[in-house]
Specification:
This is Glycosyltransferase. This protein has 2 domains: about 1-35 and about 50-325 and about 335-430, Alpha-Beta Complex (Spore Coat Polysaccharide Biosynthesis Protein SpsA, Chain A); about 440-495. It has 17 helices and 9 strands. The protein has helices at about 5-35, 65-75, 95-105, 125-130, 155-160, 185-205, 220-225, 235-245, 270-295, 300-310, 315-335, 345-365, 370-390, 390-400, 430-435, 445-465, 470-495; strands spanning about 55-60, 85-90, 115, 140-145, 165-175, 215-220, 250-260, 415, 420.
Amino acid sequence: MSSISWFFITTHFVLLGILCLFGLHRLSMVFRWFKYRHYQPTQPKAFSTLPKVTVQIPLYNERLVAKRIVDSIVKLEYPQDKLQIQIVDDSTDETCELIAERVKHYQQQGINIQHVQRIHRYGFKAGALKDAMETATGEFIAIFDADFIPHPDTLLKTIHHFTQEDMAMVQFRWEHLNRRSSLLTKLQAIMLDAHFGLEQRVRCASGMLFNFNGTAGIWRTEAIIDAGHWSADTLTEDLDLSYRAQLEGWKMRYLNDVTCPGELPADMNAFKSQQFRWAKGGVEVMMKMLPTVWKAKIPFTKKLESTFHLSNNLAYFVMLVDTLIFLVPSLYLRDQHDFVNVWWLDIPLLAMSSGGHLAYLFFGQVVLGRSKSRAFLKLPSLMVLGILLAINNSKAGLEGLFGMRSEFVRTPKTGELGNEVDSSQVKVKAEKKQYRAIAPKGALFELAIALVYSTVFLWAVGQGHWFMLPFLLLLAVGFVLSALHSFYSHIQLSKQ
């Protein structure tokens, strides 16, 4: 066999091995959960006198949820003389007027609430939070995005964790207002449940580095400043600050039993936009912080776990490169050189790479006491959704690797409560259209890839590569659906 043949076959298995490592890491979360399933954070000593807390609500053009969050946040149960509320508003539309009216209304009732605005959007969310801290009076900063609704007793239940003097941040578990609105929101909820119920819980319990999720958490003001403050050089300022703070010696805590409900993206374009930002930002933080992590005087296990944590968004790109460039030549060359029996290596690697992710998602429901049967039935849809994200998140990862800068694009929300819409916020459908996410570019590219995978599937049928057919069929179906959705989105937007 020629050297080029060996190159294609070997590279295919190397890339498949990398995907297998990502899958095994996900699977390790399940096994580690069994080890730490009885873990409970140390019961904190109570403050003798409650400290001052500033609640920050960062938002940008969020007309459909702005009134709801302001009306909700003033219901927080905390001594009024110890509580400051900042609506950190970068909006450029009528959201500003709506917030101004609600803030004035509550100020007249004696509530310490301010409407904090800037004349520019420098640094986007990170810049807005940093600027707002110049007028923040709290020793602690509670942050809630505009589409989240904290329970009234959230601050009183959690502030005492900061009696531990080196505690920088506590993160609450996300719940979902519109979990059952559609198949898409149900699948998103399963993905996030696994992240919180397994990942955050396991990393916190085992003393690994983990992250603030950008909302539904409280920071110690001193820790933010000591770690270098909010920075806008990545799209995930929350992940960036979390790593910098922990490497400075600060502690963080995840509270699985304290929940904060928020709203999931209601349509595929909004979901893809959010995933793009998270994936690109994660890779940007990897490029920025991973060298520092490996130089830090922390245990090897923390360094290894952090490497998987920060690089996991590259799995989409690895999968796309392998299946588009190396899979077919590998199958063809093995067929030509009577090397077909290596299928016994393909199957375990494919099973571990995809099976690890599926087990992770499934057990994310189990550990939260949700229906096992419903979770199991959603697994095929979750696999297809992962393929639908492959091109979107691969592009995000590439941009992050090569340092290509882009604007912080907010995820549009509709103000949906469960299966209903708050009619006081959404008067006509035309209002919702203003907040629709822009359809991702590259529909023709997605179609071309769909055609490639469909052709490969038919070729594999003809060549009798039966063990690869389920995998190839899934890829073909996933990319065809992705291309069709992109074309449909562009057609819908052109009609507006």
